[in-house]
Amino acid sequence: MLSDSNAKLSLKRLKGYFLIVPAFIFELLFFIIPLIIVFVYSFSKIDAFGRITFEFTIQNYFNILTPEFTKTILRTLAVASISTIFCLILGYPIGYYIGFKEKKYQNLLIMLIIIPFWLSFVARTYSIISIFSTNGIFNQILTFLGFVGDKPQWLYAWYSVVFGMVYNYLPMMVLPIYASAEKLNPQYLEAAQSLGASPINVFFKVTLPLTMPGIFAGSILVFIPAVGEFLVPELLGGIEWYMIGNHLWIIFLTMGNYPLGSALSIVLIILVLFITILYIKYFAKEVELGL
């Protein structure tokens, strides 16, 4: 009997290993190996003829410490952080509201949130240009209402980049918060109110801690792609508001400097991992205290 139990247990483990093999192969081919290649390239050189020579050097990392790259990295982190905060401010009430609606209304509202994802990311971003350009819809409305004389320029500034980020990534904040709010037991809120807690105290002492997992997941889903964003700053920010993704495009495809681009990519990955780990540690404590 014991041998049969061991055999069944081994068979279950073997089936489990077979289930993870496709995912492991996918990660190996399309994530781990390319990352290793980029890491190796970051320590290589370019000779006088523009050819890559695999001679070990750390000069590429020192080249990133220039004021231009430092300013770009700080700008990228600032824009991604501001965009994440605005997504949270706008997305939390929406996700919370949907989470407490009846099921039939929830499906409809979630569908309305997801519909923008059916359109191309490029088309959604170009729609912002048609709205906020000098002769766009927004300026035409302001001119018609008599608020402006000369039409102002709303594009090619930090706020236009942030607006594009929030517009494109807001659903990724709403959906996790909705998932957390839907699981929130209304009896907890009623119990807090019956014990004399004000609506503000109920929110900060009960609602907010219990929906922290959704805030955490949504913030990660917005921040990480925002850091690597290329199209939004390219179309809405202009050269003065280029982010790391735009510089990587120039370094790899225009300059052909693969070692420098690889070094910048590795630095970006390390920064994002570091910030994400700090964020996880902080929110892990918050979630543990909330639960």
In short:
This protein has 291 residues and is mainly alpha-helical.
Could you characterize the architecture of this molecule?
The chain has helices at residues 2-41, 59-63, 67-99, 103-114, 121-132, 137-145, 158-183, 186-194, 199-210, 212-227, 231-237, 244-255, 258-290, and strands at 45-46, 52-53. With 291 residues, it is mainly alpha-helical. The chain has one domain (68-290): MetI-like (MetI-like fold). The protein has a two-stranded antiparallel ribbon with strand order 1-2. It is globular, with a radius of gyration of 24 Å. The two termini are 42 Å apart.
Characterize the overall form: globular
Number of strands: 2
Instruction: Describe the sheet with the most strands.
Output: 2 strands, antiparallel
CATH class: Mainly Alpha
Kindly identify the CATH topology. MetI-like fold
Give me the number of helical elements. Answer: 13
Radius of gyration equals 24 Å
Report strand order across the widest sheet.
1-2
Please report the distance between the alpha carbons of the first and last residues.
42 Å
Question: Strand-and-helix sequence, N→C?
Answer: HEEHHHHHHHHHHHH
Task: State the low-pLDDT regions, or none.
Answer: none
Q: What is the helical fraction, as a range of percent?
A: over 70%
CATH superfamily: MetI-like
**What would you call the structural class?**
mainly alpha
As a percent range, the share of strand residues is under 5%
Oligomeric grouping of the chains: single chain
**Count of spatially separate domains:** 1
The overall pLDDT average reads: 85
- Going by CATH, the architecture would be Orthogonal Bundle
